[in-house]
Amino acid sequence: MYLRLRKVQVPIHTPTGRNVIFPKAFQFADSLSTLRHFPIRGFDHRAQFRLMAFVSESDPSQAPSPFSIPIFRAIWCASLASNFGGLIQSVGAQWMMTSLSASPQLIALVPASTTLPIMLLSLWAGALADNVDRRVVMLCCQLFMLIVSALLALFAWLGWVSPWSLLGFTFLVGCATAINGPAWQASVGDMVPRGALPNAVALNSMGFNMARSIGPALGGVIVAVAGAAAAFLTNAVSYIGLVAVLARWRPERPPQLLPRERMGVAMRAGVRYVTMSPKIQLVLLRSAAFGIGASAVSAMMPLVARDILAGGALTFGALSGAFGIGAVMGALSTSRLRRRFPVETIVRSAALALATGTMMLAVSHWLVVALLGLMLAGAGWVIALSSFNVSVQMSAPRWVVARAVALYQMIAFGGMAVGAWFFGRLAEDHGVVVALYAAASVQFVSAMIGIVRPLPQAGEENLDLQNLWREPETAVPIEPRSGPVVVTIEYRIPAGSVVPFLAAMSERRRIRRRDGAHGWSLLRDLGDPELWVERYHVSTWLDYVRHNSRRTVADKANSEAVLALHKGARPPVVHRMLERQTGSLPLARSADPREMGDPMTDPTRSS
Questions:
Q1: Pairing mode, strands 573-579 and 485-492
Q2: What does 267-283 look like in DSSP terms, one character per residue?
Q3: What is the mean pLDDT of the chain?
């Protein structure tokens, strides 16, 4: 049995304890209303971090340089220092493991211990970043990594580090990195206009790889002169600047008109959005294949320095520096490449460059050739990963972008962790050269996938929220937790329009399910062949409000296509019904007179 609803305002209980009635400013007009274009705005209450950047979304060439935005510039510089420290610690940890154990598998597990947490925690971290203050998340993560790095330095100085305790410390740093990543990546889109986002992502990659070009060599010098404990202490100190910048930053946050999603619900919503978004799915597939093949370069680098080139910590630092120099060159060329070539051409060429560099590393016993191969591999690495990152961020609206980025990181770095373990085991059984050849072959296959499943061009759709839907009033009093809610929409479709209608409704089904509806079906009346009924379920009234508030500007085309095929004298008739069991009757209160009245429908709303 279904109880039909009419209009009433819904009070929402906020985390502060106050009741909020969804205001008219938040309500959405129907899908045919005129769209309003608002300027993009970055902000901070402190004068030195204030930004008022107004940019046309339709003309990304007019977007300002991300470095012209004070808060982005400040965090980028502080992150650069932190990246230096992190890479110095990475060199120290990997080289310390070579002195603690001769096992190639344990040595390969050092980078894997920092990437495995990304696979395990990214989705939870993405849901956290989409629901709480991202600045607080980043600040807590930086403080945690500072403490862990300081403890690792202390343990190394006292001689208490064993192979497994070293992996434990690096795993803890990796956990904080995994939680920090989605919050930081999503915050970039809050700091810069959408048109400047690709350049901002490329600059982040460039900053990391600028540190990578010098940091490992510097780390090798520090380890050779003062030992691994000094490298760990340097990393702990490097977090101080970023902590200070984040502590001073006070971004404005839009008012929370809906209560926060529970973490489990938010995680499911993120997975659902990605699984119902073909473009993001394809990016995840390609990033997983790329990550598996790419993992061998960093995992095998200490073994190449020790076994193939017969070098020490300085040789390892030089190899890492060459990889970083190539990555910086790749990051600097990313913007130019994006203007001239489609994203598939860029990613495929980057994968082939990395495969070629890996093979050069395997065949060479000369340091110069190895350095050239690593420069080529570094360029391919950063170009591909930054392209994947931009594609994901440009394919997801702001309400779910952190979760989409988190799933991308989980897949890409999970592939790297699996690849590092696999190629480490292969190197232990068959030698480093065989492992590098196998990794180059996997990377070549990942490039060839693009022939069958090419990546779509990102940024062609406007994924800003429409912010035009109006919450309907109901004749029956209803609360946010009331449900399940069943929605039906009646269309009148002439016989000649059935085929395009079915095609449009196929896309409508994907949009409904992507935004939280379930049990979607399309019905045709046997007695009236022009009458078609769209039907779907949501768990609660609050879920119904969330579902409609997630409609993007790009979805407007589908709504218009469906409405253009409707030929009835009236707009499509919408019924919103509350599912009720018939086994018992409510005894806690008397029936409201409105509940006993005639059922009403609302033909003026489209969903």
A1: antiparallel
A2: HHHHHHHHHT-HHHHHH
A3: 79
Amino acid letter at 188?
Answer: V
The predicted pLDDT at position 463 comes to 81
336: CB partners within 8 A, 6+ apart: none
SS3 579: strand
Task: Give the residue among 460, 527, 532 at the shortest CA–CA distance from 500.
Answer: 532
Q: What is the DSSP code string of 477-527?
A: ---TT---EEEEEEEE--GGGHHHHHHHHHHHHHHHHHTT-EEEEEEE-SS
Higher pLDDT, 106 or 277: 277
Q: From CA 407, how far away is CA 384, in angstroms rounded?
A: 17
Place of tokens 């659902």: 272
Tens digits of per-residue pLDDT, 103-132?
776 777 787 777 778 778 888 888 888 888
Answer yes or no: are the C-beta atoms of 22 and 471 closer than 8 Å: yes
H or E segment to which residue 485 belongs: strand 485-492
When mean pLDDT is compared across 90-94, 369-373, 393-397, the lowest value belongs to 90-94
End-to-end CA distance of the chain: 21
> What confidence category does residue 213 fall into, taking pLDDT thresholds of 50, 70 and 90?
low
d(CA 423, CA 297): 10
Query: Which of 20-29, 381-390, 579-588 has maximum average pLDDT?
Result: 381-390
Which of 425, 273, 455 has its CA nearest to residue 349? 455
Three-state SS at 104: helix
Q: How far apart are CA 202 and CA 63, in angstroms?
A: 15
